[in-house]
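Tokens for chain A. Residues wanted.
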């Protein structure tokens, strides 16, 4: 972690400590009626983190089938989750429009008018968000839940104890936020529905026929494989009799062109929206990817997925249940493991 990042975290924790002592919530045992109004706060635009939220949402719906369950998030939250069956409404928080109804200055009054019984701060339980904690604390909900992480615990009426041994999966960390809520059933699988693709992508899928996807790059550069490894994996798909479709984002465009020109029969997917990307992943025989948002999307859609972890922990973020596979770059002969998995497809 950089010195600037450490300083930022120290400043945030100091601010939380001061405000928690002044504005701490009164503790109370959670009691939720069957037709409760529930707010889940997740101010994060990263695709993977939003997909990882879906088990918590599905668990809430399973426990409270008659409840109203709303999610407060950014614009991308609506794109990714608006069709999720557990959600009644997605409320778009606009952090840039200070005076709008859902902006930073008026969001508290807006939420209070909706009279929630329960508000859940669904931020990363081991690295909470000050903004989310504040929104949850002053949402007006009768009960508020969030991670009992340091002084953050003071801001909730029912802080959730998070047990993390360093290898706990992100899904399980988030599900621990539901500890104070009555009920013990848990849904551990992710699931999303991004709707129909564009006509262009629909035609592309039809023209390609049966194919495998090699997803290139990631939001964070340190998660990328070297170009030669992407070429090797694309060729392994071709050697196994599978057409290789390369999926990519704007920052991977040059990489995609280089891999397409060097690999046997590899074909670049057209530029895609989230719905387009989901359709390409869902229709694939299998997907090979690094640890990135499309990995979570592919698994949530049910596409057999092999994830190559370059710099992150597969125990924390990977999906090991069949037909999925995780491979770490530190694992001896990792390329052989990926190629063997491709042959099994």
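Reply:
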């Amino acid at each position: 972690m950089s010195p600037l990042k450490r300083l930022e975290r120290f400043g945030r924790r100091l601010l939380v400590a001061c405000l928690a002592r002044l504005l701490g919530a009164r503790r109370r045992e959670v009691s939720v009626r069957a037709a409760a109004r529930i707010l889940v706060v997740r101010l994060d635009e990263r695709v993977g983190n939003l997909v990882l939220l879906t088990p918590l949402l599905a668990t809430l719906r399973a426990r409270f089938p008659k409840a109203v369950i709303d999610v407060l998030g950014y614009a991308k939250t609506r794109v990714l989750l608006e069709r999720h069956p557990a959600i009644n409404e997605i409320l778009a928080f606009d952090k840039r429009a200070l005076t709008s109804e859902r902006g930073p200055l008026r969001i508290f009054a807006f939420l209070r008018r909706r009279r929630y019984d329960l508000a859940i701060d669904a931020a990363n339980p081991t690295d909470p968000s000050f903004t989310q904690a504040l929104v949850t604390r002053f949402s007006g909900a009768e009960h508020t839940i969030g991670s009992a992480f340091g002084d953050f615990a003071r801001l909730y009426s029912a802080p959730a104890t998070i047990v993390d041994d360093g290898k706990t999966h992100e899904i399980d960390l988030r599900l621990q936020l539901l500890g104070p809520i009555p009920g013990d059933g848990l849904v551990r699988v992710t699931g999303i529905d991004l709707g129909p693709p564009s006509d262009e992508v629909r035609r592309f899928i039809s023209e390609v026929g049966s194919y495998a996807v090699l997803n290139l790059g990631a939001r964070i550069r340190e998660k990328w494989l070297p170009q030669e490894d992407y070429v090797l994996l694309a060729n392994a798909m071709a050697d196994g009799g599978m057409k290789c479709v390369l999926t990519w984002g704007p920052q991977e465009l040059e990489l995609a062109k280089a891999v397409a020109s060097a690999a046997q029969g590899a074909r670049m997917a057209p530029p895609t929206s989230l719905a387009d990307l989901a359709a390409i992943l869902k229709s694939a025989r299998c997907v090979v990817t690094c640890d990135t948002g499309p990995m979570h999307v592919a698994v949530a859609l049910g596409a057999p997925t092999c994830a190559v972890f370059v710099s992150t922990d597969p125990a924390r973020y990977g999906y090991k249940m069949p037909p999925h596979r995780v491979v770490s770059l530190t694992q001896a002969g990792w390329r052989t493991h990926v190629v063997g998995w491709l042959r099994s497809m």
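The chain has two domains: 14-178, 199-344. DSSP finds 14 helices and eleven strands in the chain.
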